[in-house]
From TrEMBL:
It catalyses: N-acetyl-L-glutamate + ATP = N-acetyl-L-glutamyl 5-phosphate + ADP. The gene is argB. This is Acetylglutamate kinase. GO terms for molecular function: acetylglutamate kinase activity; ATP binding. The record marks K8, K225 as: Transition state stabilizer. Its main location: cytoplasm. It is an enzyme of class 2 (transferase). Its EC number is 2.7.2.8. It comes from Mucilaginibacter limnophilus.
Amino acid sequence: MESIHIIKIGGNVIDNSENLYHFLQDFTGLDGYKILVHGGGKVATQLSEQLGLEAKLVDGRRITDIETLRVVTMVYGGLINKNIVAQLQRFGTNAIGLTGADGDFIRTKKRPVKTIDYGFVGDIDEQSINPQNISRLLEAGFTPVFCAITHDGDGQLLNTNADTIASALAVSLARLYEVTLVYCFEKRGVLHDINDEESIIRDIDPHKYEELKKEQIIHSGMLPKLDNAFAAISCGVKTVIIGRSDELGRVKNNEPFGTRLTDHI
Ligand SMILES: Nc1ncnc2c1ncn2[C@@H]1O[C@H](COP(=O)(O)OP(=O)(O)O)[C@@H](O)[C@H]1O
Ligand SMILES: CC(=O)N[C@@H](CCC(=O)OP(=O)(O)O)C(=O)O
């Protein structure tokens, strides 16, 4: 089986042009097939507020009314995606920037209203991604760069969390490739003490995850990230790592990097 790296980059890194530059250089240095998935929540929140729209997030998920959908489509699918693609081209990576609507690569279902109406937010299921379609793109020599916009197949764009897209792509492609999924963000991994970059927790299994949650060592945005990461591990993804974007080069050199998730330690 050939291998593939699926790398997700979050909004805090995207917002810093120097960090983004170095990250994209390291991404280019990874061998073999690769896919980049990017968020950009921080930029979308800033722009929404500049436009006089209040940004509302519940459990890390953005309430996406029609105005907010317009903003996130412009920010994720336009500004951030095309900027990343242009920078990757400079480094020699033949990147192709995509929403889930392009090539029908990621089809989602609008989240049903239960206690909260999330608006135009799309949920991924087992039928959302056809790995063969993506494989054709990879074999043609392109490096896909996915933003957090998907579609429902009925003409409606939807906003989908980028961590979830990365996990779902990894699970789907695990049928064809040996997948390494890396979540890159601004800290050196899952930390014992969020203010101490040296306190990296090197391995987490589901049991330890439960303990860390109880002790409130893990909270806020790290909770949905780890839920997505464990979902990938339990569905055939070989390696899942969470680490700092400027240490991605360590993956290539097989050096210790961030926090590794396991089924059991
Ligand atoms: N134990 C922990 N170690 C590291 N980060 C943590 C931890 N617990 C909570 N966090 C928070 O999780 C955030 C990462 O989640 P999020 O902001 O959703 O990431 P991204 O930038 O990839 O979208 C970190 O910025 C940090 O504030
Ligand atoms: C539905 C939903 O919450 N979508 C996310 C998509 C962007 C994202 O995931 O960005 P980060 O990775 O930078 O957080 C949002 O609009 O914030």
